[in-house]
Amino acid sequence: MLRQYTLDSSKWLKLLVAGGGMLIVFALTAWWANSASAHGYVDGPSSRAILCKNGVNTDCGAIIYEPQSLEAPKGWPNAGPADGKIASAGGAFPKLDEQSATRWAKVNITPGPTTFSWTLTARHSTASWKYYITKQNWDPNAPLSRASFDLTPFCSLPYSGQPPANFSHTCDVPARTGYQVILAVWEVADTANAFYNVIDVNFTGPADVIPPTAPSNVAVTNATSSTISLSWTASTDNVGVNEYRIYRNGAHVGTVNGTTTTFQDTGLAASTSYVYKVVARDLATNTSPDSNSVTGTTTPPVPDTQAPTAPVSLHNMGVTANSVSLMWGAATDNVGVSEYRIYNGSTLVDTVNGSTLTYNVTGLSPNTSYTFTVYAADQAGNVSPASNAHTATTSSGNTCPAPWSATQVYLNGDQATYNGQIYQAKWWTQNDRPDLKSGQWDVWTVVGNCP
């Protein structure tokens, strides 16, 4: 029988607030997905952010965990991060905006051809790369602002398509003396955003052109079925080692700072051999010769003998004369749940995949009690304990819910008849036709036929 509801103004307000909250969550999710779609940073000459990650700059805040996330609207200098928040790309990492003549480590460079190298942790369709530099007489003890910079880029590279993960190109850096800041801007093509990196450079003194010595004694220290651990002896450099880059089978797979001489490679295939080498780089991005190569082999796969946990909170979402609509909470597993098995008493009713948490049991008799349980299983065939047992009684079958009405407000659990089928609402709805809004993720679900 269809239940009727009258909503007073306070309930309407709650529904509106809840709906607004859902819209906000959706909007934030969409924004995050968009903002997280492309990331990258300048690592040659080393940017302020990457020197923070590598421990050369200190007291940097959270940027040490994500130097690739300095993202803000594109269009600088007419748009983009505000004055005083240029280094942090809008203020998300405020420590980067602290500015003085001595606050940040500086990379020695000379005027003329300079190679700028980017590491793109997510390769995104690109519109351009642009580079700006501070004026000769800028104030290094004042917050970075547009007034600090020559607003005509000294290098502008149009680009079309998706760049490689490690992208480099050469620009002519104009003549300066002393401490200057270069602003590097990577403009994304198909979003409204760009990535902003500042590079603290020093034009005094000779350029550092001496590379570090090669790391030595690279060795495998441990291996599992999916990881290989490495260690090596540190390189030396006339100025200082900034970072080590680790290569697997010739491909760059990781970077650690210049004080770290260990690395763990993860996500590997079992019973497989891999060849590793390590190179060192200094602040001026001079790269050492390759280290010795070493081969590591992962161990055989470990048999999976751990069963999933039991599914939880088995309950029904509605009954008809010949069906019960079941729902349960997910089980967990050390590898992954591959399927759920639904039982009526001791009889297996059906099996659904590990991402499905609902099932409509059909073919039942009217006015009859049934007890259901659900089990989880993994790919290795390990089976969980049973869920809680849930007993449900089918309806008598003498009546059908009232026909669906476009003006009726339906709440979770309310039922309606449409074209000979019984539909049940999953949440608040009005004027959503059942046959167009049915299925696992829509408002209505089919729970049976109207006798």
TrEMBL record:
Q: Which UniProt keywords apply?
A: Carbohydrate metabolism, Hydrolase, Membrane, Polysaccharide degradation, Secreted, Signal, Transmembrane, Transmembrane helix
Q: Does the keyword Membrane apply?
A: yes
Protein name per UniProt: Chitin-binding protein
For this UniProt entry, the molecular function terms from Gene Ontology, in alphabetical order, are: carbohydrate binding; hydrolase activity, hydrolyzing O-glycosyl compounds
Q: Where does it reside? A: Secreted
Query: What are the residue boundaries of the Fibronectin type-III domain, all occurrences included?
Result: 214-301, 310-397
The answer, when asked if Membrane is one of the entry's keywords, is: yes
UniProt main location, coarse: secreted
InterPro entries tied to this protein: CBM5/12, CBM_sf_5/12, Cellulose/chitin-bd_N, FN3_dom, FN3_sf, GlcNAc_Chitin_IntDeg, Ig-like_fold, Ig_E-set
Return the SUPFAM superfamilies for the record: Carbohydrate binding domain, E set domains, Fibronectin type III
Q: Name the CDD domains for this protein.
A: ChiC_BD (cd12215), FN3 (cd00063), LPMO_AA10 (cd21177)
